[in-house]
Amino acid sequence: MDFPKGQSFFCGFFLAFLLCTNAVQASPNYKDALAKSILYFQGQRSGRTPTSQKFPWRSVSGLGDGSQAHVDLVGGYYDAGDNVKFNFPMAYTTTMLAWSTLENSKPLGPELANARVAIRWATDYLIKCATATPGVLYVGVGDPNVDHKCWERPEDMDTARTVYSVSRDKPGSDVAAETAAALAASSLVFRKVDPVYSRLLLRTAKSVFQFAAQYRGSYSDSLGNAACPFYCSYSGYKDELLWGAAWLLRATKDVKYRNFIDTLGANDAINLFSWDNKLAGARVLLARGSLVANDRSYDTFKQQAQDFMCKILPNSPYSSTQYTKGGLMFILPDNNLQYVAAISNLLTTYAKYMKSAKSTFNCGNILVTHNTLINLARKQVDYILGDNPMRMSYMVGYGTNYPKRIHHRASSLPSKTSHPQSFGCDGGFQPYYYSPNPNPNILTGAIVGGPNNNDFYPDERTDYSHSEPATYINAAIVGPLAFLSGR
């Protein structure tokens, strides 16, 4: 994240073009998009890239990460188009990848193994962050205020790789509870295929969550300008405590996490879901207890999840969600597709739970079935893949018309193979950052921030609020793409 940073052979050419275009948009290749959405994460890797790396223009970076604190913090992901490792959105990214994998293991098909690889690249790093120093949780590497003044490849980084952490004296319940959620959810992904690793993940999750719950405070307050305005915890930490406890409850079935949830009082109504605010996600996850396990004690969460859906559905009398003329949810102007992807994930997941329970609900006089939610999610996904007024896919490398000038350092700068010399902090601005030319490296699968509220996308590298891709957009879209590819 950067701050100031059906073919027709018997019609005229134009009509044929329209028919062909519409046919393509009406039948998106979800499996192709799914594979690319997971492949994208290889382009965000920090650390020593393996021989299986599919993007040859990305290579080794950040091998000294953690050295400032005399610990090994090599690995993990750069969050977006920069060279910083922000653990708060990275942990959320991991949780969403794990949830998507858990709910869609069959429709993922051959991509299941790739999803596990993407998850483990993050969890290996998060385990290091949680266990390197007793009583300390490392929550980021790289000074964002310095990094965001530079335009250089990850392989060339010469900026301070400052290490950030939270502790008893400087708490961070939000980032800690999200880390616990990521580790707990991932433990379920690896439970059958790697039980030893799964137990390590769960053991670490329990410890980190205990720290989050016992020493309460926002990491934004503890880290100051290393967290804000980049990834401020605007919603506070109660939503992460709910989210983390919900995942530990699912992973352990230990009643103490349910008791914790019941005393938390996280009852705020909300119409969004994101790396910052997890309330809606936690409620959908907990509603599974009512719908799938048929446990009536979870009915409150089911009602809260349904209330959320009623705020999202466009024809609901309780809707508080804006839609563009082209049919896209429009939550906030900066990086809007992150919210679209995340909410679409909740729609398909809750639809799955509803179908399992043969359940319906009402928004006023509107009957909502599981297909109601699926149809809305499909419309959002199809819009992202090109069924929109600009006929543009907002996934790089999918289709023929997609963003060519994304706000992403490694993608926009020549690789070390073609330009062995380092750029240095300022070396990439001219002629690359300000260039009107397409990026030399295609970050296949990356989903950008997306169009504005008028369905317009300028495709300008300098317009980071629309042209920057991010891990948490892709992590959220994996679930809906897998779900739709299996139908």
From TrEMBL:
Glycoside hydrolase family domain: from which residue to which, for each copy?
30-480
**Active-site residues, Swiss-Prot/TrEMBL:** 407, 459, 468
Which key words tag this protein in UniProt? Carbohydrate metabolism, Cellulose degradation, Glycosidase, Hydrolase, Polysaccharide degradation, Signal
Q: Which SUPFAM superfamilies match?
A: Six-hairpin glycosidases
EC number(s)? 3.2.1.4
The Swiss-Prot or TrEMBL record describes its family as follows: Belongs to the glycosyl hydrolase 9 (cellulase E) family.
Q: What is this protein called?
A: Endoglucanase
